[in-house]
Amino acid sequence: MKRFLSLLLACVMVFAVALTMASCEKEEESGKPYGFEETKELAAQGAVNEVAPAVTGDVSKLKVGVILIGNDQEGYTKAHIDGITQAAEALGMDVSTQVMWKYSIPEDESVTSNGEQLIAAGCNVIVSNSYGHQSYMQEMAAAHPEVQFIAMTGDTAASSGLTNLSNAFTKVYESRYVAGVVAGMKLKELIDAGKLTDANYNGENVKIGYVGAFNFAEVMSGYTAFYLGVKSIVENVEMDVHFTDSWYDFDKEKAAAAALVESGCVIISQHADSAGAPTAVEEAWNNGKVAYCVGYNVSMLDAAPNAALTSATNVWSVYYQYAFATAINGGDIASNWSAGYKEGAVKITDLGPNCAEGTQAKVDEVVGKLQAGTLNVFDTSKFTVEGKAITWAYATDSDGDFAYDKNNVVADGYFHESFVQSAPAFNLRIDGINWLNK
Amino acid sequence: MSNTSVAAKKPPLFHIVGRGRGQLPFYQAWGIRLGAFALALILNAVFVYLVVGVDPITFYQTMLKGAFGKGFLWPTIKTSAKLLCIAVALAPAFKMRFWNIGAEGQVLVGGIAAAVVMFYFSDLPAVVILLLMMIVSLVAGALWGVIPAFFKAKMNVNETLFTLMMNYIAMNLVNFFYDLWKGPKTALGKINQSTHAGWLSSLWEKRDANGYLIRGEESLFTNSDFWFVVIICVVAVLMYFYLKYTKQGYEIAVVGESSNTARYAGISVKKVILRTMILSGAICGLCGFLVVSAQSNTVSVSMAGGYGFTAIIVAWLSKFNTFTMAGVSVLIVALEQGAAQMANEYNFMGFSVAAADVMIGIMLLFIVGSEFFIHYKVMFRKSSKEVAAV
Question: Which of A274, A262, A324 is nearest to A78 (CA)?
Fold first, then answer.
């Protein structure tokens, strides 16, 4: 009995220590990672935007293993599956024997066990498509220097010092901006036709809404780009963001979108992977509400044939073709890769039937400017933080405390997104965007 | 007399008779086992042929390659070792007829305890931190095992439900720390990835001035998986001797056969229950420690991978003989790995992970089912002529 009690006591103490330490917050460092007056030198560019080189090696030697967070029923993973398939076919690979798929792999040690199976099966390039796969990919990369590892959307390839680990992300913020322009055109049409009511306004501003997964850079960069796209057409606009804390949750996304529409938001966009939001908006549209939606990854016209305007999407095949061709040629796949409209790595899906007149022409114009480099999405003269235009902003977290502390990326009048690293870095909370539940 | 009463007197088509103790000779028992195994192999081959059209020879070649081929062997060995470790932990409890369904949770708390040390005491020297991790894991696992045992011993609370429920507490404890540590990211990932503090490999790793790892010659002794397997094998051997040749092991057997006999013989049943569950839980905790320090380097609810439950089958099938357990563990894991390789190679023909699960299910059903026919005899109804003759 005594022994039992002492055991119990020992364990209680261990957990008590853990809990106390957990509750001790790290002390906040003073100073913000951005400013409004001084300027700083632009950091060195880390992310490259190369396209596929001509194939000089033996295509049949390449075997690709793919670790996927979801399956083909889910937009984000489907886009990767399509991208890999198209890239492999374009390079003349036999997809059925030269690509091995691992579906629905959670972000835990199953990445390692599945990765080891793929390596044993002869794969010499391993791709994972979720951020949380990355740390397992990194350890495998260290243990298997002969195999190339690609952790999509990741951010540690450069700092790990491993040459066989790569990260990549598209400049999807460009297509989100263009999707915002499409939404802005619709909004303008509705305003001009007098279709909006007082409920759609907060003071002077028209309300739009956004269903976001998590409140960190990848999502913040995306919704800010979308918002700025809308704002480039309709100046007096503000946006409510509802976070769901999940990449894929049909019911939560649907409920969030329904609540946003109910509160008067005219256009709902999303950075979450289900068709929940478009489904809710289509229902509202059918009930006579003035509500439209802009999706992500895949066209939402199936879920919302009337309400869907377009979706911002990635053309992953551009990257995969570059990576596979480079691997076939025996070259080094870049640590960080990021490309946008110029390289054809992002686009918006077909416009829905209810888009405003002249939308396509406007889209072509904006895309042309993005390709030419005359338009920058995060133009510092187009948005403010705390009421002021920023003059510098850091984009790298070097000590793992989730706050940026080095590498300024504001120069030449705009925030250079996906510049130091391929993963999105823009996490400024700009004026005109409200968080509903954080 | 009506017809119905005649029908009622008719004996059933077959009935089942226990064979009693030790009636079946050794070769017959193994004949039944091998027969069942062969039947399962044939049925699986038919199933795979019907589902994906892969011929049996290719099918079993792929299965063998996936389980024991080059590059596949180590994953099979180390995964088997994990399963073996939990089965070894369960053996004394089940031998005592204490239904410990809580191995999954005991492994999880062992893992989380190790991770707590790893996360908050990462500055300690490598040997110290690993020792500390091991100790808290053993204690946490033992605690998770002894709580239900305490209530069983003192108040005769049903241990099956109690240990099962403890699993869910452990899972949520893992979820709690997981969410706490991941911060605003979507996933926790490996803990201390930049320093490898608390990783078994930190014992022999060397770093250059920039903090990058220096990759030396790979050898068996600088391989975490190797030590993972070695430690578990040692524990398995010790458990064999503990159960077979020690007084405590004998007491466990007596309590398992009949607690009244044990009491009559002067064995304190309560003490044996508590002691055995501390041991059982502690070994589960050790498994958690080994997984966290040598394999995953992080925590997640899939840390034990459901092996806390699979190990129950392993322990029973092996009749608590730890050497047999090693064989059964390898067999089950080889099936899983082989089936996974089938899913790898024939996915495009429609062989999915779900089909692999069906295959493993068929195998296990036959293997477990064969034990039934070893212990029981099926007596068919004698034909009507024979009945008439009687």
Answer: A274
